[in-house]
What does this fold into?
Amino acid sequence: SADGEIHAVYEGLITKEPRYSKKFVEDIWLKIAEAGIHVHFYSSYDFDYCKYLDELHELIHYEGNFSSAELAEEMTRYDLGIYILNDNLMTYPYLKSAFGLKLYEYLNSGLPIAVGNMPEVISFVERHRIGGYVDLSSDIFVQIRNISKLNVPKNFLENYGLYLEDKGKAITELYYRVMNKEEY
It folds into this structure.
């Protein structure tokens, strides 16, 4: 916050190939950086590709790879998390029902979330006022700035019972019903 600019973070898997993969984010990050938003990312994927992305634009920054515990603390210093994945005919079936761990990791760090074309995630973050959809064909800076101003309440995951420990019994019961071909 010292520089007055917006700093977004992405953590997790990325890929340079194939371009139809949901984790191909190069074009997305370039658009966000060109809009004036810093994109910081943490990934254990191909170090050479991470360095390439770091050098692609002055506002794209590779921060390395951290353990989960270190990363949760590290991410608290950013303005928001990026959950915008590559959206195309090959990836949309996944995106329309996506609800990945990244969402929970950002919330655990108190970050509002900029979301791509993922209807279930958009519904969730907008319903709880903890994020919003980013249309990459519109004014990216204004959209992300507005999302960065949202406040994720302290203990959000705990308050809404979104820890795995809280759902363990229900998940186990669902698996048993599925294995036994019962309706659920």
Remarks:
- The longest strand covers residues 7-11.
- The mean pLDDT is 87.
- The two ends are 47 Å apart (CA to CA).
- Strands lie at 7-11, 38-42, 60-64, 80-83, 113-115, 131-133.
